[in-house]
Amino acid sequence: MRRLPRLVLVLVVALSGAASADAAISIEEFVKDRKKWPSQVGLRQAIEGRYAVTGRTLLRFHNCPLDFRSSEPLPKLVRRSPRDVNVLVIGRIRRDGRTLYFRIERITKQEDDLKQFDRRRPTGPKSRPADWFELADWSSGRGRFYKDVELQEKSTEANRMGIVLARRRAAGDAKMLREVARIVVTRAIGNRLQRAIEHEALRVELKSVGDKPAALSAVRDRIVRGWPGAEDTKNRADRSLAGRYRKDPVAVYNAADEDDRRRLHRVLYADLAIRLIIAESREAGTSGYKVAELIRRQVPEASAEASQFERMALDADLERATEMGRSELDRMVARLRDAKRAVDADRAVDRWLEIRRERLLTQGVAGRLRLADLVLSLKNDRSTAVSMLLEADRLKPDVPEVAERLGQLGYAKQGKKWVQVRKDRPTAPRRVAMPTGVRVGMSGKQLMAAMGTPRRVSRLAAKRVISEIWVYGDPGGSRIAVHLIRSRGDGTAAVRDISQLPSRR
């Protein structure tokens, strides 16, 4: 029986040569080091790659100028598909005069590249990101060498799998997540994935910094510098998008398109800005009113959050309303009316007056004079004021201050009895009727809106408050002086008193 050629006997199809292929150098590596070929003459080597041409005793690899020769006929290499052209050859570089060639000693059929890719896939719980990156490098280099688009796409797939695994292992660690983001850049996977991982790292960092103003401020500054749209007050997310983001920020950001991501950058900035305002205010002991003011100034779209702080501050003030001084009460009442809480304002005034009523009633005429002034200025309660003044007159008749107040309220003394001689309703003793809507207790802003800019302003600073007199009117005609008390704490002003000034004619 005729003996088969030795090369036929060593031909192994499909998987039988896989282990040898893994130990061999690729044809792309071999060609890359072609300058070393003369020094490798006689050195036994294993080389694998895609063949381009085969003959009876000649084989040529793709993109390789070197001939691969056999002293015996080469086995027939069956191709199951156009891609099924991978072989492993073992042999040595030889010289034929001045020409180098490769002498084939053994040849083995190999899997095609896509099958090799699938076989090389890392599997199991012990697989590492580095294993996927190694596979990506193999398929990328091979795809470029053969101009194989499909194999290059496989490289992208492997890189993504490596990033997914690395990101999963880095979860909860901002520093490691940022390292993964840098790997995304080096592997050219895309800016979207890089930004998503950086966002996840930022969310982790925001959890770890707590309420430390310095740390929060540093994060805010980085957002301003590196996250497009964060400072743009017009770049607002709708309520649905913002709500979903706050509930699950990482997942929502991952899925968002570029336009929505810019809007989410604004949500991220706004939430952090409010968080920083609260942290700084807590350290400084700033009032809730000031917090609300800062929120409105820095985050205009967060009006609901600002109003919430105002409500909480007002509720806290209401709890201690009876302990307030007059100027503080006036400011609180003005704020309550601005917030359309007139009922609460009236109740606070009633409680405040009730606490002082018993004490003032023990102070004879002076106490009743004071009580009459309070009910007029705080409630414009003419009836109660007249009753107090009449009581004062009964306790001590003909006191000039009592007579003056009653006269201003439209009463005159006839014999020993006070009678009403005018039925007009003046607002208060020593007070002048003001334009509609202007009243004691209103804020400085409300007064400015009603009366405009005063002709003259006088100020007297005390320890906790600033007393201001706003003068309106023509110097040669009717003039009005409005007394305001301004807090040093939050700068708010409230009208304390309104009076008529004499003409300068």
Concise synopsis of the structure shown:
This protein is an alpha+beta fold.
How does this structure look, described?
The chain is α+β, with helices and mostly antiparallel strands and 505 residues long. Among the domains are: 6-111, Bacterial OB-fold (OB fold (Dihydrolipoamide Acetyltransferase, E2P), Beta Barrel), CATH 2.40.50.200; 321-420, Serine Threonine Protein Phosphatase 5, Tetratricopeptide repeat, CATH 1.25.40. Helix content is 51%, strand content 16%. The protein has helices spanning 6-9, 18-23, 27-32, 113-120, 129-146, 149-170, 174-186, 191-208, 213-226, 239-247, 249-255, 258-284, 288-298, 303-319, 326-338, 342-361, 364-379, 382-395, 400-408, 444-451; strands at 25-26, 44-54, 58-61, 68-70, 86-96, 99-109, 411-414, 417-420, 456-461, 465-473, 479-487, 493-501. The strands form three sheets. The protein has a five-stranded mixed barrel with strand order 2-3-4-6-5. A four-stranded antiparallel β-sheet has the order 9-10-11-12. Strands 7-8 form a two-stranded antiparallel ribbon. A hairpin with a 3-residue loop joins strand 9 (456-461) and strand 10. The chain is rod-shaped and about 150 Å long. It starts with 5 loop residues before the first helix and ends with a strand.
Helices and strands: which structural class?
Answer: alpha+beta
**Tally of separate helices:** 20
Mind telling me the CATH class of the domain at 6-111? Answer: Mainly Beta
* β-strand amount: 15-25%
Counted beta strands: 12
CATH architecture of the domain at 6-111: Beta Barrel
Largest sheet: 5 strands, mixed, barrel
How are the strands ordered across the major sheet?
Answer: 2-3-4-6-5
Radius of gyration: 45 Å
The gross shape turns out to be rod-shaped
